[in-house]
Specification:
five-stranded mixed beta sheet, two-stranded antiparallel ribbon, globular
Length: about 80
C-alpha cells in the first residue's frame, strides 16, 4: 500500500482530532489534490486552509509541489509571536 503521512499541529490537531493521518498516494499528487483529499476526511480544515503552510519532508513547499508515496507532509498553522 502506498501512502504518505500528514502531520497536524496546534489548532489543526484540534480541528482534525488527530496528530497525523495516512493519505493514499498511489501516484504523485499536487497540492490541490492533497487538500481535496484532506478536506473530504476533515471538513473543519477548510477554515484554516488560507493560512496554513505546507511542508514536505521538513521543507516548506510552493503551490505547484508534487507529493508522493513515502513523503511526510506537515500542515503548519501561522505562528503567533509574543
Amino acid at each position: 500500500r502506498t501512502s504518505m503521512r500528514v502531520l497536524f499541529f496546534a489548532q489543526l490537531k484540534d480541528a482534525t482530532g488527530c496528530a497525523s493521518v495516512e493519505v493514499p498516494a498511489p501516484t504523485p499528487i499536487g497540492t490541490e489534490q492533497l487538500w481535496a483529499e484532506l478536506l473530504k476526511q476533515f471538513p473543519a480544515l477548510e477554515t484554516h486552509r488560507r493560512t496554513v503552510r505546507l511542508a514536505k519532508n521538513s521543507e516548506y513547499v510552493s503551490a505547484d509541489t508534487q507529493f508522493a508515496d513515502g513523503d511526510e507532509v506537515a500542515l503548519i498553522p501561522p505562528v503567533s509571536g509574543g
